[in-house]
Amino acid sequence: MKNTCILLLAIIATTQLSAQDFTFTAPIQVAESSGNHHPQVELIEPGRVGVTWTSNGTKDIYFSKHNGVDGFDDPIQLNPDGLEVQSYDWSGPDFAVEGDNVYVVFRSLGYETGHVYIVKSTDKGETFGDTVRVDALEDGFAQYPDLAVFNDTVYVTFMNHDDGGANPSYDVARSVDGGLTFETEVLAAALIPGEACDCCQPEIIVNAEFVIVFFRNNDENIRDIKAITSIDRAASFTEWISLDDHNWYIPGCPSTGPDARFIETSKLVSIYKSEVDGEGKVFLNVYDLEADASTDLVEIYGTSGTSGNLNYPQVCYNDGVIGVVWEDGGDGTSQDVFFNQSATGSIDFNPDNAINLTAIAAVQSKPDITLDNGVFHVVYADATDFSVYYMQVAVANAIDELQLDLDATIFASKDQIIVTYKETDMASLIITDLNGRIVLEQLITEQETIVRTAEWVKGIYFVQLKSGDKNFVKKIVR
Predict the structure, then answer these.
(1) Domain locations in the chain?
(2) Which pLDDT score is estimated for 7?
(3) pTM > 0.90: yes or no
């Protein structure tokens, strides 16, 4: 079945899919009545994501993990009682996953008194350890942290203000012991003319060769996206690149920052909001670090949106596919979350293929996205009940392996599922939908069982084989 997944991803990488080639689940509430500021999503393990967000009411930060079937575990408060968290809808905590480790960074409350902290889980987000302070600032104060992890070395970037909030710039603090302690921060953005835009969230990405910090610059109120690079593991930052030369002039900070991912060792993709001729736009830039030049600059929008009120774009990448989400004015009656994707081989975010994921009269905003095994995982803030919602967008017939204790295979086509069972003991075959409803349940002993699915509703299903204490579970998308 792994060969089937590889073939599926190869098809994605060479063919521009249309909106009809995707199926998406109904949004589910991550947690009730616990806030909705700045939701972030990352894959914790196959088929299960984690989500962080903050509550503006309680000034707490929360983490919740998908239960793998139909909802989320109860949220965990990550900040200790008495340490309030800075909570904005457009900026907040960030987190990264490496192996079993989950790292979450946040900033404590207090405009000129707050500090940057990190907490770590070593058991895939089931429990979290003590809070560790990241910044060592004695003068000034830190804002807007973001983090990345590579080989258990943790890199945290944050804005550094002088006393009184002047001269904002970006520092990077590094931990070589998995987040237990942090070295003194290094000034990253000194080479770039101007200063950091003082209210925009940054982005940091890391691979084996580069540490790169992306941020919105402010050069006499020209507020474009720049990036500063390090080739010595953040000991120094010696080069900078311009990803955005739209010359957006705005006297006040627009409070919207960039997002970025590596797509090759020396090639990256970034996404950001700008303004051209008074109209808000979203651009995606593919940049080749070896050539020191952009290879693609693409405007992102959907034909069903307003194309004039686009903001807060986020990007993800996996196996040759780029996915993007953003918020837009929708049909003019609501604020909606839009989605599109493209293969990296020929960047083409056809606006006709963009999907309005939240096409109802409400305010749905501040989305985030990640991608694994043909399934896009999306979170967003809903202003109706001040909660965070989660949904999946999947390539038709994608298969996700979850648990493989039994010797079996599953093949899914357009109108059937073929279960090949190679054990000698009888097994229970149970198929449920995303909401946990049983669609089919039967005992099987045959080597091959065919389940007809032509009349099934398109969506995500879980196919489970149980025999004694052994399980075989796969997620399929019809």
Answers:
(1) 2-395, 399-477
(2) 26
(3) no
